[in-house]
Amino acid sequence: MNGLLLLLDGFDEVANEIQNNTNLQSWLQHCTSNENYSIIMTSRPNAMCPYLNNPRMLNVIGFQSQDIQNYIRAYFKNNNESNVLMKKLNNNRSLKLLSHTPLYLRLFFIFIK
């Protein structure tokens, strides 16, 4: 309620800079140790941050092509809406690639409805 949610997307892209900057390390340690703060960091698996105490890690595995189709069909009650989204994904290579990530695929639903 009175806390802070901090989202650090692409942490692996700045991990080396933070590794070399003690001020940033201290700030991040402060944030992670504060009970009123919630922090979500996304990263490729290779990012290391040994200065954090016991971070909880979650490995998100993306959808396979058939999973995408099944998820879309299960979400939409109207088969026409699922066909519209599938067509858009199949016609746009970037969207199709992004749709393998569950969060992005879920966001696409918002724009189709």
Automatic annotation (TrEMBL):
<dbReference type="Pfam" id="PF05729">
    <property type="entry name" value="NACHT"/>
</dbReference>
<protein>
    <submittedName>
        <fullName>NACHT domain-containing protein</fullName>
    </submittedName>
</protein>
<dbReference type="InterPro" id="IPR007111">
    <property type="entry name" value="NACHT_NTPase"/>
</dbReference>
<dbReference type="InterPro" id="IPR027417">
    <property type="entry name" value="P-loop_NTPase"/>
</dbReference>
<feature type="domain" description="NACHT">
    <location>
        <begin position="4"/>
        <end position="78"/>
    </location>
</feature>
